[in-house]
Amino acid sequence: MKPIRVLIAKPGLDGHDRGAKLIARALRDAGMEVIYTGLRQTPEQIVAAAVQEDVDVIGMSLLSGAHNYLFPRVVELLKEQDADDILIVGGGVIPDDDIPALKEAGIAEIFTPGTTTTQMIEFIKTNIKR
Amino acid sequence: MFNGEELSKIKQNRESWEEKVLNKSLAKAPESKQEFKSVSGAVVNRLYTPEDIADIDYETEIGYPGQYPFTRGYQPTMYRGKPWTMRMYAGFATAEESNERYKYLVSQGSTGLSVAFDLPTQIGYDSDHALAQGEVGKVGVAIDSLKDMEILFNGIPLDKVSTSMTINAPAAVLLAMYIAVAEKQGVPADQLRGTIQNDILKEYIARGTYIYPTEPSMRLITNIFEYCSKEVPKWNTISISGYHIREAGSTAAQEVGFTLADGIAYVEAAINAGLDVDTFAPRLSFFFNSHNDLFEEVAKFRAARRLWAKIMKDRFKAKSEKSMMLKFHTQTAGCTLTAQQPDNNIIRVAMQALAAVLGGTQSLHTNSRDEALALPTTESVTIALRTQQILASETGVTNTVDPLAGSYFIEAKTKEIEEKALEYITKIDELGGAARAIDLGYIQKEISDSAFNYQMEIESLERIVVGVNKYKVEEGSPKGLLRVDPIVAEMQKKKISEVKTSRSNEAVQEKLSNLRKACQGTENVMPHILDAVKEYATLGEICDVMREVFGEYEQAVLL
Prior knowledge:
The complex is a heterodimer of chains A (130) and B (559).
Chain A: E1 5-9, H1 18-29, E2 33-36, H2 43-53, E3 57-62, H3 67-80, E4 87-92, H4 99-104, E5 109-111, H5 117-127
Parallel strand pairs in A: 1-2, 1-3, 3-4, 4-5
Chain B: H1 4-28, H2 58-62, E1 85-90, H3 95-107, E2 112-115, H4 119-122, H5 146-152, E3 162-165, H6 171-185, E4 193-196, H7 200-207, H8 214-231, E5 235-236, E6 238-241, H9 243-247, H10 252-272, H11 277-280, E7 284-290, H12 294-315, E8 328-332, H13 344-358, E9 363-365, H14 378-393, H15 408-431, H16 434-439, H17 442-459, H18 487-502, H19 505-520, H20 526-534, H21 539-550
Parallel strand pairs in B: 1-2, 1-9, 2-3, 3-4, 4-5, 6-7, 7-8, 8-9
Helix pairs in contact in B: 3-5, 6-20, 10-12, 10-15, 12-13, 12-15, 13-14, 19-20, 19-21
């Protein structure tokens, strides 16, 4: 079976990339192929990278509080590109109260502080759409 | 610190203690771990004795506070004179709301202001820019023009308070706005006290709010040094920051090593720009993190002071002692706050604040319990401020200077951190300096490796985080978090268009064109930025002129 391909993305202007880099490395150690976008990606850039790299998963990390706008925007653009078979997950400083609406918008899971990399790896393996 | 005879007696007695007392005890009850490590992963011995500090000379290495090498503090009486500045970092939504929070903090005994700007402001975009969508007012206050700055400091006497502004790439613009607001209040620039962060190198390393490439960024910084040394002499022109390096996952020794390496780069840039070291070095300030490991942190602050003093004296041949004194602000470690059982964070913050005070900080921000979840509520901020007031007024830790000095452990640890930090600085020198080491990704890689190890230790339960991987409870969602209303973005856009219709657009264009010329040449850009700001040119307009001339920084994406 070909390895799971993941795009780890930093949408918006937030510069906190400790979590994103750490997860990228943990997923890679778990045998996945990981592409990391670097900072300050627009939803358009993230979707273009995901399509071009033919990934199975997009993981977005955001600690600035702009998730309610940026996460759903990525899902929307993916749908426009007919690329909504990509599993989308997110994480960061995200209040519990925001999670139902984000899931409703098509984010499969929101990983909040304290989640282990093992839990994320398990989630991805169980939920990829292929 | 002991003579040979005393030392050999101590050695003899220690060996006999090991044999007769320790080994018996270990045979009956072994220790819980093979090896004990600090938060930074450094090995911590069972016991420290005079043998561990035998080669440290008291007079030259430890000495007296307010005197080279400043190990014991930058000032002779420390908190007996006055307590540290209680400076709470705050800012959110609009200038109006942030102004209210500042007035509240001052009324509650906060002694300095500290402004948090939102991300678009920090990256030089106006609130109506496409990339600002979703971010306006979120992590700090949105400032688009002098108009917002006037509101932000309305009713706050700028000749009385000192203000720290966490602003880097567009630091010159925000400083100019501050000078302009003060002028309107009738306060001359030479009376202003405060700090701009203005530390671009750590933005490339760890914090991410860069705009311009390294070279023009360093020029902006040295322009500010030069301008302030003449016009705003009481202003701290840079806050060389280890805080974010530590937050990104570094160890304590890396925090010191990488921060001082950045400091060296700024001093070199200023000297190369023709400035005399003793004209600008006294206005350099530092900003450190205070993490969980109490003793390691105290040792870290002491090591940083000693090492910087040596660097300024030996490497840069500073003559004034003021150029050798490392003074610093501290913030408790945001990365140690847990979303789980958030009230526990009050205890973590208290311990970290204690470390900062025992380490001799000049000012302190204590984090609020709810910051792993959102921006803090007024109630949470009040508890955080009260934590400092309890430390200053009730615990007695302020009664004597550098109370932990002379502890075998603290002195050995101070030396160890100084040596490790110096190793990093030497390595960075070999790579060609901090800017080059950043381009090569060396510093970022070192930090990521440390961050990864730390996380794996938490996941393997080698490192316990209370409420996260041990002592867990089922919890409901936290209630009453602070939320920034998305309407803020609309309000800011409206203010921008009002400003643009009420100002003289002709004057703005003229000042921006002068700025463009200054950027293309070698003139100091500060006076031109000040001129543009006074005509209500927006932050975005000013930063765009510099983008045109300077270009933008491209981050090396490394894993």
